[in-house]
Write a structure and sequence with these properties.
about 350 residues, nine-stranded mixed beta sheet, Spore Coat Polysaccharide Biosynthesis Protein SpsA, Chain A, 11 strands, Serine Threonine Protein Phosphatase 5, Tetratricopeptide repeat, TPR-like_helical_dom_sf, alpha/beta
């Protein structure tokens, strides 16, 4: 049976760290906690789980901190988590079984990351990330912000284990990342594709849409990125142009995404909304219906937006068919939307309204 070191970097995570360690502590053989400058009880809590609580002077470089944490591991494999991540009980059991039966010939294991949820608890965004790596391979971390492991060789296994993100807004500085990037720009730092993308995303989040577009476009021109990266870039560019109320450019990037793969549900929903705004309900219904019929991409590493192929298009179809006088179809799709969001008052109201119309008829 393999052995596992859990490596974490933390700062001011007193509200989340214990919860994270409880979710995985029985499975791992060693815990390395690297603290980058906590001023709360984080180190005290970490000390309850391990004697390996190490300090790392913060240098505005997440990859450097990750690499330092990995350099202190001593077990066969290294697992990494953030303090606001957890393994649900069924996923902790899956990791335990993997540890027991995993071939030592494997070099890396990926796990799905459920990183965002709606107010009903539905997963709205998930992405696959490499989580468990053989220590002897010395895989490095790259990227000063939104860092990632560089896996250039070796045997990898895509597991069905899920890491669940539980956001802790109290300890999060929304300006931290963009300040790091801007300091790097001031120093003349040349961005790799990942940094270019994530700087654009930080600008996007801060509603600097025009400047975000500038960096998304630079990212899209980089030769080393994949078609999946370009699809994601198209999604982000379409979103920026939507907020800038430039519908023509928004549609341009919706359709450009289809140069790289068959239509994705997110882009179909965008087209549906375009026609909905124009009160062209038949055209809107076409695109929303297509969104419901598309299966998830076969690319396990694609970022997946679940709302765009579950409750959202069904709710919008309910509206379209209501406007078209197709009340039975409106009821049908509103009920499907309600199955995903059973306490959503707006959908409940829509169902009741259409029910009343149908009963009167």
């Amino acid at each position: 049976m393999i052995t596992i070191t859990l490596c974490m970097i933390v700062k001011n995570e007193e509200d989340t760290l214990d919860r994270c360690l409880q979710s995985v502590g029985d499975v791992v053989d060693e815990v390395i906690i690297v603290d980058t400058g906590s001023t709360d009880r984080t180190k005290e809590i970490a000390g309850k789980w391990t004697t390996n609580v190490l300090d790392f002077a913060w240098i505005d470089d997440f990859a450097a901190a990750r690499n330092f944490s990995f350099s202190n591991a001593t077990m066969d494999y290294i697992l990494w988590l953030d303090a606001d991540d957890i393994l649900l009980p069924e996923d902790s059991q899956k990791l335990s079984r993997l540890k027991q039966f995993m071939s030592p010939e494997l070099d890396a294991v990926s796990m799905m990351y459920h990183c965002d949820f709606d107010d009903q608890g539905n997963v709205t965004l998930k992405v696959r990330r490499t989580r468990l790596v053989k220590r002897a391979k010395n895989y490095p971390w790259k990227g000063v912000v939104h860092e990632d492991l560089v896996i250039k060789d070796g045997t990898c296994y895509d597991s069905d284990i899920v890491v669940t993100h539980r956001k802790n807004h109290a300890s999060y500085d929304p300006d931290r990342n963009i300040k790091i990037y801007e300091r790097l720009i001031a120093q003349g730092k040349e961005f790799a594709p990942r940094d270019m993308l994530h700087y654009a995303m930080e600008l996007h989040q801060h509603r600097s849409y025009q400047k975000a577009i500038e960096f998304y476009l630079q990212f899209m021109e980089m030769k080393e990125i994949s078609d999946e990266d370009r699809i994601y870039g198209c999604s982000k560019l379409a979103d920026c142009y939507h907020y800038l109320e430039n519908r023509k450019k928004e549609r341009e990037y919706i359709f450009r995404s289809m140069e790289y793969d068959t239509p994705r549900s997110e882009f179909c929903c965008r087209l549906g909304y375009y026609f909905l705004e124009k009160s062209q309900f038949s055209q809107a219904a076409f695109w929303y219906k297509l969104a419901t019929e598309l299966s998830a991409t076969n690319n396990l590493w694609a970022i997946q937006n679940h709302a765009s192929r579950t409750w959202l298009p069904h709710m919008q179809l309910g509206l379209c068919y209501y406007q078209l006088g197709e009340y039975e179809l409106s009821y049908h799709h509103n009920k499907i939307a309600l199955s995903y969001r059973p306490t959503d008052q707006s959908i409940i109201s829509n169902v009741k309204l259409v029910e009343e119309i149908i009963n009167k008829k």
